[in-house]
Amino acid sequence: MRRIRMLPTAVLALALVASWAASAAAQNATPTAAVSLSPSNSDSVVAYGQWLLSFPAVINPGADATGAACGLGQRGTFYLAPSYVGVGGITRTCTVIEGSNIVVPVIAGDCSTAEADPYHGTDAASLSSCAKALVDGITAAHASIDGTDVADIASYRVQSPVFNVVLPGDNILHAPAGAASVVIDGAFITVKGLTAGTHTISYGGTYPSGGALDITYNLTVVAAPVASS
Question: CA-based Rg of the chain, rounded to a whole angstrom?
Answer without folding.
Answer: 17
